[in-house]
């Protein structure tokens, strides 16, 4: 495989937290490299990948060698980044003293360099202090500065690490529902195996009227109210797929039209049209929400204090869907009293065809639903309790 292809494929997986897929691509790329600078970059990323899949000892062994090469050849930013990776390995292996030493050395190395790396080093120092004191206060203090600086992925990681120190179900649900990366969601479920993912997440206060993004129903209708189109609901869900950072038009397009390829000019226009229609609908029904543009990316926000909540339905991984079959059937019962088809369920719940069929199959397997007929005439009926 050509090095350029290896790099592109590695970067695609790496930025989606798919580190297991990154490792063989990085190893193959390193085997082709002659440039010492590029080789150290690749080895740093390989160590990061090993660390992220739980192979901390191997990651620390590799990064220790890479740190020595970086310092010897004068690549001081790579040297500091290597220290940061080793520090995180030491934290996971229980050696907070060694971790803090590496982090302070990394900060000292970059003290005269204009770079955002220092904030990442300080983030780990805050996490280490939280672990040492068994308190989330250091994390919360650092979160405030990260929010002001717009360090979105730092905010996500701080929430994850805070759960390891002080578990809170509301933070877990926000982290799970507000993270669009399947690999990161799997990391959450693996780290907290006893956690229960709710069938829906409420974005905003539970004390105010709510809009169900699965059905388009408003809990307390107003005189100006009229039902949103399916595409408007999907646009709102697309904007809320990540609770930590604004989304590009490419990301919004992928959520709206998952089976289509992104074509920069044409696809951008389609997304802008969807955003314009959604803005117009929000204005016409007087919902106090706004779609904000932040550096060529978009996010959904409250106009002032939260006066409307949005209920986001869960998209659970297959291994959790059997466990969730009962909750799924309860949602179905709120919409149907008689037999219904997969198309009926898909339309009412605003799910994809594949997700609808998969969840109906899980519910049949668990005995919650009965499948009647075959082919296009297949319908479903609630099993008698």
Name of the level-1 CATH class of the largest domain: Mainly Alpha
Roughly what fraction of the amino acids lie in strands? 5-15%
Rg calc? 24 Å
Proportion of residues in helical segments: 55-70%
CATH architecture of the largest domain: Alpha Horseshoe
By CATH, the superfamily of the largest domain comes out as Tetratricopeptide repeat domain
Q: Averaged pLDDT, please?
A: 90
Total beta-strand segments: 7
Q: Indicate the low-confidence ranges by residue numbers.
A: 316-323
Q: In DSSP terms, counting alpha (H) and pi (I) runs of 4 or more, how many helices?
A: 18
Helix/strand-derived category reads mainly alpha
Please give the domain count: 3
Biggest sheet, open or closed, and with what strands and sense? 3 strands, mixed
* Global morphology: globular
In whole angstroms, how far apart are the ends? Answer: 57 Å
Could you give the order of the helices and strands?
A: HHHHHHHHHHHEEHHHEEEHHHHEE
**CATH topology type of the largest domain:** Serine Threonine Protein Phosphatase 5, Tetratricopeptide repeat
- The strand line-up of the biggest sheet is 1-5-2
Descriptive account of the structure:
The chain is mainly alpha-helical and 385 residues long. The chain is built from 18 helices and seven strands. The strands form three sheets. A three-stranded mixed β-sheet has the order 1-5-2. The protein has a two-stranded antiparallel ribbon with strand order 3-4. Strand 3 and strand 4 form a beta hairpin. Helix 4 packs antiparallel against helix 5. The longest helix is centred in the C-terminal third of the chain and has 21 residues. The radius of gyration is 24 Å and the shape is globular.
């Amino acid at each position: 495989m050509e090095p350029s292809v290896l790099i592109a494929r590695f970067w695609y997986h790496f930025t989606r937290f798919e580190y297991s897929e990154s490792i063989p691509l990085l190893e193959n790329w390193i085997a082709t490299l002659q440039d010492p600078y590029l080789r150290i970059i690749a080895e740093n990323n390989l160590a990061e990948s090993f660390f992220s899949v739980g192979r901390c000892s191997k990651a620390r062994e590799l990064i220790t060698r890479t740190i020595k090469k970086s310092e010897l050849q004068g690549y001081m930013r790579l040297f500091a980044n290597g220290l940061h990776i080793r520090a995180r390995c030491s934290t996971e292996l229980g050696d907070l003293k060694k971790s803090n030493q590496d982090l302070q050395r990394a900060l000292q190395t970059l003290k005269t360099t204009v770079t955002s790396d220092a904030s990442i080093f300080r983030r780990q120092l805050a996490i280490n202090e939280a672990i040492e004191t068994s308190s989330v206060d250091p994390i919360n203090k650092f979160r405030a500065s990260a929010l002001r600086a717009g360090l979105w992925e730092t905010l996500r990681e701080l929430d994850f690490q805070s759960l390891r120190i002080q578990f809170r179900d509301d933070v877990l649900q926000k982290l799970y529902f507000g993270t669009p990366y399947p690999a990161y969601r799997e990391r959450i479920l693996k780290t907290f195996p006893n956690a229960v993912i709710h069938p829906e997440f409420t974005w905003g206060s539970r004390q105010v009227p709510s809009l169900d993004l699965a059905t388009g129903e408003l809990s307390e209708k107003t005189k100006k109210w009229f039902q949103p189109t399916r595409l408007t609901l999907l646009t709102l869900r697309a904007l809320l797929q990540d609770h930590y950072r604004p989304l590009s038009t490419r990301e919004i397009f992928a959520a709206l039209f998952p089976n289509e390829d992104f074509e920069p000019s044409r696809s951008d226009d389609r997304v802008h049209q969807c955003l314009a229609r959604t803005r117009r609908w929000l204005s016409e029904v007087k919902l106090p929400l706004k779609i904000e543009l932040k550096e060529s990316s978009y996010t959904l926000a409250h106009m002032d204090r939260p006066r409307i909540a949005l209920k986001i339905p869960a998209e659970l991984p297959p291994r959790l869907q059997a466990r969730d079959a009962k909750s799924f059937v309860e949602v179905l019962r709120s919409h149907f009293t008689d037999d219904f088809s997969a198309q009926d369920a898909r339309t009412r719940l605003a799910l994809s065809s594949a997700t609808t069929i998969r969840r109906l199959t899980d519910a049949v397997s668990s005995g919650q639903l009965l499948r009647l007929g075959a082919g296009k005439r297949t319908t479903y009926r609630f099993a008698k309790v």
